[in-house]
Backbone:
């Protein structure tokens, strides 16, 4: 297959620590129409990519493969990026140590990096080994709080409709204090807007509360910002859909990720849904607070 042909077909490289959900993700992608190959030896990667195929590819990469090495994988990824560019995405599944340990306890499996030792030692060694890959991933999926059903739904949200019939759009809010979410295609800064944090009656609420939304709306810059943002999205989204992309991600950031960015996310999601776009939303910091409580 030529590079030009690959440009129209996504190639997903799926990896992450053992127990984080790679097999579930691979199965979900197969259900969505991807040609999937799990536990692919790195030495066979060029042959798979050069061979003829008419479906998008999802390739599962595992540290248990006999020829696996971080250097070889990084070299392979860089070579693919140089030849086919944005068609290739590295997807990294992760989970916290307690969840990975619980999953191993439930299955009574031995960890591949600690076959005769404690699973927790294997988890730590594998995460340390894979850190350079995690740092390079375009899409990072934390499966800590996800059931297999939730993970399948997330894969559908991110990579569904690989035939390009419909571009799916995700809009999310976040806090700049915790850094940019991975995989965003467009980032917009809401920190210039009036901050409900300084109102004692609103501080404990979120941007999903009508009183907070009304407070932010008193900022004279909100409507102009919202209008120009939606006009920009209505311009670029059809262009990305025409290019055959399956997913486009927009992030709104503010200081704490609780008020202003949430208000804008809610408004934009509503506007895009009315225009007929397949749109989903996520409030990263609100989810984090929910998991911690």
Residues:
């Amino acid at each position: 297959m030529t590079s030009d042909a690959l440009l129209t077909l996504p190639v997903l490289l799926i990896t992450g620590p053992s127990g984080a959900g790679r097999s579930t993700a691979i199965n979900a992608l197969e259900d969505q129409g991807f040609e999937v190959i799990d536990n692919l030896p790195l030495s066979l990667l060029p042959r798979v990519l050069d061979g003829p195929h008419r479906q998008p590819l999802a390739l599962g990469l595992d540290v248990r493969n006999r020829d696996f090495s971080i250097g070889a994988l990084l070299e392979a990824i860089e070579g693919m990026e140089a030849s086919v560019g944005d068609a290739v995405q590295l997807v990294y599944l992760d989970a916290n140590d307690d969840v990975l340990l619980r999953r191993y306890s439930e299955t009574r499996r031995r960890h591949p990096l600690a076959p005769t030792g404690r699973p927790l030692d294997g988890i730590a060694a594998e995460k340390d080994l894979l850190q350079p890959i995690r740092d390079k991933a375009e899409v990072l999926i934390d499966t800590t709080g996800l059931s297999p059903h939730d993970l399948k739904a997330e894969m559908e949200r991110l990579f569904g409709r690989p035939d390009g019939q419909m571009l799916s759009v995700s809009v999310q809010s976040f806090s700049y204090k915790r850094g940019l979410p991975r995989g965003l295609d467009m980032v917009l800064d809401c920190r210039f807007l009036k901050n409900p944090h300084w109102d004692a009656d609103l501080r404990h609420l979120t941007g999903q509360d009508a009183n907070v939304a009304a407070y932010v709306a008193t900022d004279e810059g909100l409507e102009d910002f919202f209008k120009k943002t939606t006009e920009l999205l209505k311009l670029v989204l059809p262009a990305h859909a025409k290019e055959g992309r399956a997913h486009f991600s927009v992030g709104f950031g503010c200081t704490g990720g609780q008020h202003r960015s949430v208000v804008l996310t809610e408004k934009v999601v509503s506007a895009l849904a009315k225009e007929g776009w397949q749109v989903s939303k996520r409030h990263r910091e609100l989810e984090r607070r929910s998991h911690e409580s």
